[in-house]
Amino acid sequence: MAMVITLDGPAGAGKSTVARALARRLSCLYLDTGAMYRALTVKAMDHGLSMDDPEAIGELAASTEIGLVPDPDAMRVTVDGEDVTQRIRSPEVSRSVSYVARVPEVRAGMVRLQRKLGEGSCVVAEGRDMGTVVFPQADLKVYLEASARERATRRAKDLADAGHAVDVQVLEAEIRQRDHLDSTRDVAPLAAASDAVRVVTDNLTADEVVDRILDLLQAAGLPRHTGS
Ligand code: DC
User: Fold this and answer.
1) Segment 62-89, tens digit of pLDDT
2) Could you tell me the domains of the chain?
3) How far is the CA of 221 from the centre of ligand 1 (A)?
4) How far is residue 228's CA from residue 98's CA, in Å, rounded to a whole number?
5) How far apart are CA 172 and CA 156, in angstroms?
6) Residue range 159-170, pLDDT digits in tens
7) CA-CA distance, 208 to 157, in Å (whole number)?
8) Helical pair 104-118 and 33-46, crossing angle rounded to 10 deg
9) CB 182 less than 6 A from any atom of ligand 1
10) Could you give the percent of the chain with pLDDT greater than 70?
11) In this predicted model, which residue has the larger pLDDT, 19 or 227?
């Protein structure tokens, strides 16, 4: 059945793990919208664009085809047909993506694509503006939060697992910088929708957060199981 659950919040609040697990549990599509902004960032970097040149980035976006396979078990993202699923996680992309994501022409195209991907399906949509801009009529809106230190520690672990050496303090500073850019940009700044349920994840495991969201679904009279 068609149902939209939005998961917004700052970097490292646990959105990806939770969104993926939730989509799996509900047999829904998993819309990793950050991956889409990251994919365009890969292309902007490959083209040697300056992150201080929003006009060039906007033009690039207009001639770029982003593809997303919204499968919680096998999410893939492509740019003009090229699979960049691995490359989007590099620290270089993480450092630059906020600059790409703040360009209005970039966001307009992404929003269109995200709505199209979610049309008529059950989706768990993860990002920064899912509940506020992309799916304002979502069935359930969740805003995940965690302290900056906790988020940096989690991200450091993820990066270490992926083979990238990182310094937690540097990461924490980068996360604060990214939060600042994401929450002060003119278009669709990071913010909780007024009707979103806030969940602080500092002392919760991903499974506990998923269970809490399933309880919220039940409390809202929505199915805890879809599909088969
Ligand atoms: O969730 P993430 O770390 O993959 O997001 C990457 C960047 O993209 C981050 O700077 C926020 C931005 N973003 C956004 O502006 N809107 C979204 N819907 C998703 C991500």
Assistant:
1) 999 999 999 999 999 999 999 999 999 9
2) 3-219 (3.40.50.300)
3) 30
4) 39
5) 9
6) 899 888 889 999
7) 19
8) 140
9) yes
10) 98
11) 19
Q: Is 218 helix (H, G, I), strand (E, B) or coil?
A: helix
Ligand 1 atom at minimum distance from 130 CA: 18
Q: How far is ligand 1, taken at its centre, from the CA of residue 14, in Å?
A: 13
Q: What would you report as the CA-atom Rg of the chain, rounded to the nearest whole angstrom?
A: 17
Q: How far is the CA of 18 from the centre of ligand 1 (A)?
A: 16
Task: Please check whether residue 95 is in contact with residue 101, taking contact to mean a CB–CB distance below 8 angstroms.
Answer: no
Residue with tokens 């600042």: 180
Q: How many CB atoms lie within 10 A of CB 177?
A: 12
State whether residue 173 is helix, strand or coil: helix
Give the three-state DSSP class for 127: strand
